[in-house]
Structures are given as structure tokens and as C-alpha cells.
Specification:
heterodimer, A: 510 residues, mainly alpha, two-stranded antiparallel sheet, B: mainly alpha, three-stranded antiparallel beta sheet, 21 helices, 69% helix, elongated, Csn12-like (chain B)
Amino acid sequence: MDTMAYEAMKKDRIEERREAIEQGLIQDPLAPTTLEDAIDFRGTCEAMCPRFEMVERSLQNGLDPLEMNENGELDPEKAVKRYRRSAAGNEQPLPSDVRSPLVLLQTLDYLVGTVLPSYTVEKCHPFIRDRTRSIRQDFTLQNIRDRYAIEAHERIARFHILALHELCGLDEERFSIQQETEQLNKVLISLMEFYDDLREEHRIDMPNEPEFRAYNIISHLRDPDTIRQTQSLPPSVFRHPLVTRALKFSAIMQRNNEIMETSSRRNKPHNVEASQNSYAQFFNLVADPDTPFLMACMLEAHFPDVRKGALKAMNLVYRPNTGPDIDYVIRVLGYDSEDDFTSDAALYGLKLENGQVQFNQRHVRTKVPFFIEPLSNPKPKPSQLVEPKKLGTRLEDIVNGIMPSPSLASISPRSLPSRASIRSVAASASSIVSPMPSYSAAANDMMGTAMPSHDDTDYTSFAEQEEKRAQLAQVVEQRAQLEMQIHQGLGYPDARFTHQHGLRRSRYLG
Amino acid sequence: MAQVFRGFTREVSNAYDMQDVERLVELFTLDQHHHELVLLQQALNSVHDTTVYSQIVSQTLDNVSISLANFTTRYLDYAHCLREQNKEKEFDMLELSFSALIPMFNSSEGATLVPLVTSYASAIVAMALQIDKALDLRGKQRKANTAVRLLSKVFNMMLADRTTAEPGHPTKRLGIYHITNLTFKLYFKLGTVRMCQTMISNLRTGGVILEEYPIGQQVTYQYYLGRYHLLHNRLPAAEKCLFFAFTKCHYDYWTNKRTILKYLIPTRLLLGRLPSKELLEKYALETPFAQLIATVKSGNYAHCMRVLEDHFAFFYQCSTYVLLCQRLPVLIWRCALKRARDHLSCIENRPIHLYDLKICKKALEQSMAAPMEDEEAEAIIVSLVAQGYIKGYIHHRRQVIVCSKNNAFPQMDEMSLLTEVYNEDAEREQLEYLQSQAGHLMTMDV
């Protein structure tokens, strides 16, 4: 790629622009027109990245490492169009700059099916995040809101949710929860609009809508307008188990002990009468096998707030010396480790003594129970309640819509070892698998099936655990093959779906 | 036949000059059975070319007011199309008429035309909703959207008129609540409820005083405002508005009062106030509310959920289904525990202030008709005590709840929400105190 070729291409583009205006493919900036007469802009780029951008970024050192070959040069098979902010001064993009819907989906297939499995989430996340943002932008530029746009946005949303779980434990510089949530919300808002429009104009109900309405509810927990929107859905969507489950979570997470908003403490939702604040049920329900993995990932982000609301309520109700043990609180509030709880307790000004939480300490002067409201809630961390729900499913399958389900494998989720326990087993050859918190045992008790207690019967050797994981992976793969056969048998029209990532339909099993 | 048109236009001109708005409303009636309109229709039946009347109108009225001439022509266009019996065409013609009315209204003398504008607004809204329903229009094609656009224009014109009303000198603002109420009706039907906020804010900042308007308009406005608050979970504000609407609504309007009750009852229910049986009977709301209230009083969660399910369509249509599903349980649990306490007191023949969490759990399990974990039961009780539904504290070690000796279960309608303004100074004070205590202990050790 040399500079002369680049300059020549730039000249060609000016000519291309002139022709496009002439042929009515793009708007003439000098000729104002009305909204009704606006041109339906359509992209013609057939590659994941327009040629011109490939050349430009190669020359200007704008390549991402994931787009390079071994010599550090551009690999055309790996180049993907980058997101560029649409500033007011920029010119209208050329048709050759913008990808068609089919190509956009192929690009997404590449990002999810090839890039994601090849690196750790931490390494490829910034790249995928940026490139999927560009995919969304191309859909917006062409004002395409059909089922292709919906499918792309669904998979991108799942990616963001997955990223939140995988990366929330990282520092602010390496991963910003707030920015990720912002992007996710944008995708969800678009999706909700697409669903509404498609139903209003064409009376079509998309099959995955309940899944994403559920995510939307959880994402906007304290926003009454989301509930109102949900209640204008047709009953068939509203009554879907996933939406019902999300609404249940919404109900038990409502609390009315929030402080009033001040200039230093913003974003405090207002308190509403008769709120459940049913924290024990919350963590049990997260652990419940019928709560799908991605839904649990979204709920994970709310753990700090639920815990704070719970501790604040407990602070009014228990008394010093007669209150619960530290272990009890850790169990009930789904903490993974004592350290996690201790740091929260310090943050909220709760006194720990004699293995107990000494709630209801009075202020020296006002005699009001003392509870510190930090300037912002503590950050969520990946939780052991959520991680096992993955059930060994590949990340790319999760993004493409395979919901990890217990019925998939003959192994119950509780007997699958957590990552922490695998590491500890590997570290010391004959240690016992650390027991899963007993609330999930209790949850099963609630369902009426007695489960054996952990302490003695759950010893499995590292080799056995590995074997179980391999078995599970095999089952998933077999199922994938079976699905692909079914799809092919149905004469599935979209040839772009290759064996690698041919599974699209999300399925709610359970 | 040209005579009819000439006569008509002359009458219009006279009425306009005399500022006789009642006559204008009559002349431009939209009531298809009104004798004047019937006469016009008959005359128009034999007309195939609109220039027949548009010329006459121009001749007579162009000197008076161009916008009046336009409006009159559009009105005749509307009357002309009535014979086709095509609802959609009628609406389109009505839309054009209304659009022509707007410039007339916009002039500085437009304030006298308020009755004409409001009657046209009511008609266009009614027709829009009728057509949307009859033709099952969806999305952007709904005529309600057109109506909203027109009403917004009128609203802004009315709002902008800041002259004070005096006898003989009306102000455009006289019609503002009429228009607002019509617009709210459309917003609720279209599902774009958040658009109400702009109008609510504008009315407030514009200094428009609700109490100065006819009580009928006040009732309607408070009804929609109450529903708006309810959708945003602002229960006390919703109650205030809906209560006003209900009590001030004239007793002749039984259906309207019943509609208001469909929202007022759930609101008050969540605030702990139960309606009387007589009220429910009077307004034919025993199903589903009587059953619902019985379940709350008896603290029966399972039954309550069943009632909500059985009458799903009713609650879903009012958008109160989720609200009740999410918040009634708290009241139900409170009632279940109270009954347990009363039952115990009865058995033991003395007031009980201390009782076992196991018994509470049993009471809750019975209410839910499903087993419950110890921790879940305890968490529910913690939540109830923290909110003030039960006065007392929990002795976790002994697994008992110790209730206050008097009024352990306050009346549900006496509850009030926490409004805590965080006090950073108090936080600092306490932390300093604790540090000094720790320092004191250290020095003591030494």
C-alpha cells in the first residue's frame, strides 16, 4: 500500500461522490429536500471493511493488532470497518463505504464466530465492541429496521451482557462498566423500537422478543416507563416465562429506603410504597436453574444495590449482640467470600465483632441508626452464583443464542465445579471441592427434591471433573450438529451460515 | 342553488363582523343532521365543480378575511364529500378545515373563536379514534397522530396568549384545558404518555390556574394527571388527583365515576385504604375488587394471585396489573402476620408481644400455599419491620420477633415513606467519634 495509490483513491472518491449524487444514490448537500423525498440510502460495500478505509488505516497506523498478520501488516481477511463518530461537519458517506445487511451479518458472524473464540474476552473485547458499534451504525445509516437488523442487534446485545459478566472484575482503565451498560442500553432501546415497529406496521412478532424484553426490564429496573411499555405488549409476549421471570425479579428488587437525591449523590430513584426488598429470595432466584445465564449476568450488576438495600433494612431491625452471624449474612446475601462482605461492611460503616454483625449502632448525637451512604455503590464482581450457569457452553454459542440449560446435560449444575474450586484442586492434589453455598440446596428443597448436603459427598478428583466438562462439551457439540442438520433439512435459505457458527435460534429450555 | 351559497356566505360574513361566535358555531356545524347542514348538502348534491361555490366565497369574503374565506371553502368541501359516505375522506376534509381554522385563530382577534375551535377539536378527535378503530389502523397511519399534531399547534397558540380575560375581551387561554384534555386522551390511546409531561410543565410555567376553569374540565384533567402519576409510581400524588376527580365528578356521570374508580381503588389499596362494600356495589366493581380486597384482609397471597390472574384482562387494560402484582404482596404478608399474632393472642388469652419466627414462617407459607425457606421468611419480616408495617425488632439468636407493646401493627393507611436527606456532617461526626473511641481504648491498653 503506497501513498500514491492512496492519493489516487482519494481522487477517485471525489468522482465517485459526484456520480452518486447525479444518480440519486446520495443526497445532494446543496439541494434541500423534504423528508418524504429523502433518498433511501443503500450501502454497496461487499467486504467487512471498505477498500479505501483499509488503505487509509494501513498508511496512517490505524490498524488494530487483531487485523494484522504475522508481519504486522494489514490482513485483508481480518480487516473490519471501524466506528467513526458521525460529526455534523462530516460528509455523507459513499455507498461503497457502507455495508449491505447481508454483509453486516457476515461481519458479525466473523467477529463472534472467529475472533471471539480465538482470544480471551479481555483481549478481543475492545475490538469487538468497536466493530459491532460500526455494524450498528451502518444499519442506522441505511435506516434498516427489519429482521436482519433485529438479529444483529440481538446478538450484539448478548455480547455486551456477556462482557459485563466476564470483565466486571477488571479495573476501571481496562473495562468500564458504565460505558458498557450505556452501549447495551442503546442496543436495547433500538431493539425495542424495532420490535414495536415491526408489530405495528407488519403485525410480525419476532421469536426472541421475550428474551430481550426481559433484559430490557432488568436493565431499566427503576424506570416506571419501561413497565408501562411492557404492559402495552400483547399478552402472548407479556406472559412468556422469561418476561414473567424478569418482572418477578423487578418486584423483589424494589426497595423504598433510598436517600433523596443530592448534588453529590445523583441518580437516586424515588421511593414507592409497599416495596418488597426481598433479598433472600433474590439470591435464591438468581441461583435457580430456571434463571437463564445471560439474565443472571444482567442481575449481577445489581448485586451491590440489593445488598446495600438489604443491609440498610437489617440495620433497622436487628440489634447489637443479638443479630445475625457474619456467616449468615454472607450466605443470605450471596457473597462469594468473607472479604467481599467485610469490605462492604466497612464501606457502610457496619461494625463487626465477635463473629457477628453489630447492626443498629446509634449515632452519638442524633441516636439514629448509623449507616454510611457512599458517593457511589461498590462495583459488581463476577459471581459464583452466575458463572456455573454457563454449563461449559462456548461463548460464541451464547452470543448466538444458545441458552445454557440444565436439560442439555445429564449433570446437575450444582455438581459442576466452580472455577475457583478447580484451581484449588489443581493446587493441592487431594483437597475437597469447596462447597457451593447452601442456599441452592435450600432452593432445591423448596422445589421438593432433597439434595445431599455438600460437605462429605462432593469430593471428586480433578480428573473426574475434567472428564465431566469434556462430556458436557461433547453433548453441546452433538446438539449443535443436530441443529445444523435440522436447519439444512428445512432448506434454510441463508447460505452464509457455515458449520462453525450455524446456530441462530435462541431456545428457552426449561 | 348558487343562492344557497350566497346566503350562506353572507350569514358567515355577518356573524364574523358581529363576532357572534355562537352563530358561527351553528353555521359551521359538523352535526350531519343539523337542518342548515342538511340544506347545504342538498344544494351541494348537484355540484360537480367546486369552483361553483369557491368563487362565491372568494367574492364575498376575501375582503373580510382571507383565512375566513379559506376556512369557509374548506368547510364546503367537507360538506360536499359527505354524500360519498367515505369515512376516511371525511376525516381528511375535516383535517383540512381544521388546518384552515388555525390561521384564523392565530390572529389577534382569534380569541373570540375559542368555542368554534374547541368544538372542531372535539369532533376531530372523536372521528380520528373512530376511524382508527373501524379500519384497524396501526403505527404511523393512525389518524390520532394527525389529530395530535393539530391540537399541539392550537395548544401552543392558546398558551402564548397572555392577555387577561375580561368580560367582552376573551383570551385564547379559555379553551386551553379543553384542548389539553383531548390531547391527553390521544396520548393515552397512542401509548405516548410521556408526551404529557411537556404540556403539564407548560401549563405550570405559563401560570395557568386550573381552578379558574369549569369543574368538568378540572375533573377530566385531574383524572388524566392522576393516571399519569400512577404510571410513574407516584402513589400519593395519584391519589390526590384521582380523589379530586372522583368526588367532584357529577353524580350523573356514573360511567365516568366508575372509570375513575378503576384507578383510584388500586392506588388507595396500596396506600392501605380499602374501599367499602357499598362503594363497590354502587359502581358495579365487585368483580374483581371485592375478591381482591378479601384476599388482602385475610392475608392470602395465593388467592390474591389467582384473582389477579382470573381478571388479568381487566387489570392489564388498566395498566395496574404489574403494580398490584409487585406491591400487594407486602400488604398481604403484613396482614397474614397480624392474623397470626391475633390468633395466637386468642389461643393464649393474653396479648402476645414476642413470637417465634417459625410461627411467622408457617403463617407466610400458608399464605403463599408453598414452602418457604427460613431465610426468606426472615428477610420478608425484616423488610416489613424496616418499612414500618410492623413495629419491633428481631432477635436473630433466639429466632423471635419482639413487637412493640402498643400498636405493633399500625393501621396500613398511617404508613409513610422514608424521606431521608443524607447528612454528611453527621457521618463525619460519627466517624470522628468512633476514631476517638478507638484511640481512647488504645491509650487505655497502654
